[in-house]
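Sample entry (108 residues):
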Amino acid sequence: MLIKAASLVTVADADGEEMGQGSMMRYPSELMWFPSAFLEDNISFRAIDATSARVTLTDQGKTATATLFFDSAGRLTNVVARRYAIAGNSRDLHTWSVPSLFTANSKD
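Predicted structure, serialized as tokens:
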């Protein structure tokens, strides 16, 4: 993962399996911003129950899976996944959550 400010100054430059998984996990969490991306061939879904579904992104032989949660009106309310957190030399899987800004203050 290479991040540069204004394409000039390196902010982060990291690689490895854990970093790749963490970077890839961002895509399913950002699908709410680009709903048409849900229709791509490398995205698959499996219903869990009436208010949640498992979404899997496959890219270059790697996968990232997250659970999507919906309210009673069918609006995406949260994305939850296991994602690597890297602190110093430690790389551990942690539960990661991205609540939807669209529904944080809405009422059913």
